[in-house]
Design brief:
By secondary structure, this protein is α+β, with helices and mostly antiparallel strands. It has ten helices and 30 strands. The chain is about 20% helix and about 35% strand. α3 packs across α6. The longest helix has 16 residues. The N and C termini lie far apart (about 50 Å).
Amino acid sequence: MKIILLSGGSGKRLWPLSNDARSKQFLKVLENENNELISMVQRVWGQITANGLADDSYIATSKSQIEIMLSQVGENVPLIIEPERRDTFAAVTLSASYLYSHTSVGLDEVVVVLPVDPYVEDHFFDTIKNMESVLYDSNADIALIGVNPTYPSTKYGYIIPTDLKSQRPNEPKYLHVSSFMEKPTEEVAEYLISKNALWNCGVFAFKLGYIVELLKRKRLPIEYGELSNNYHNIPKISFDYEVLEKATDIVVLPYEGYWKDLGTWNTLTEEMKNRQIGKGIISDDCDNTHLINEIDIPVSILGLSNIVVAVSPDGILVTDKSASPKIKNFINFDQGPMYEERKWGWVRILDDQYYEDGRCVITKRVSIQQGKNLSYRMQVGREEVWTIVKGRGEFVQNGNFMDVSAGNVLHIPMKTLHSIRALTELEIIVVQSGIKEDPNQLIELYQSWGEIAAHCIKV
């Protein structure tokens, strides 16, 4: 059995901490058993590893998330790269074509797909392990996991079953699926629960051959490389709408245990152990109030209950918890991400200015982890001035190496190849300048320091 974790989303509902470069699954606001802040994807990958499933698991993600994914879960996790965001149907079919083309997986092999960010107990993965036997025993096209509802939620979709399948003793009991209902009213949800309906948690399984045949019927390529090159031709639609609601033979495996979608500030803060992360104060007369502050300016909250205050370089959000899901209707993403995690560290935009004479100047604070390095690169339309403010490193420019440390200032003209490796943790203030109308292009030649050293002369 193979597992595909879908890592997509634009991060709108958890703005301003999430953005196009850092979706909700990468926010480090949860805690592990060592009281360390971790993200949703780190938590889930840790659970997958602890349950012995990591060797057969892959993460499907977009090009814009590669570096932050590698930074958070490690560089050995196999990634399936989406050329662009095209919803879950495209992500699932691309992942299936990858397994078909680049692994030894047979057409009869079971593939389980799940979101990368569910908040679940460890025994949830025992249910995932059972999906293989359920699919073989039922001979259904698709098997789902349905969560037994604890209240009539209007936020989740519902799976409406028919009868319980009579099975051999000690076999997982599954239900045949009659239909689906998306986000009903509370009254309808109460009725559905009375009919044994289950929450749809977005986990499903199929045999690889099922998706391969589906691609053939839609006259889409089944080879990974060709499908990736034609990714823009895949319908931009969810797997639920394109496949599940049209399938005629679906079963669902009920799950009894804790499950939650941490997709909004009100649900995410319910699972935070600390009500404050970052600089600031929450007064004692505040009840059920949370502060998440990623900048160095302190924030004080006095006499306000049931609210979330979230602060990042991208912006500031102050919201009543019940109103927090509405944020996706109001935010403006015309501004590029002001903070990004990379596989070597992070980048924070401090200032971005355009002047009347046509010049543009952007100032960044860059952190590089010890032992990591930037790629060997050149800026085509921007010159740079680097001020080393912390740590020691090895700098290379046009093939020439030199040691640098805090206090050094480096001038890097346009079209000049350069890189740096952190001997200790490095922090650099980078000022890039150029002409606004001249498009900038970053050209990268080598990624690893070994490649850079092999192609440059060390003096």
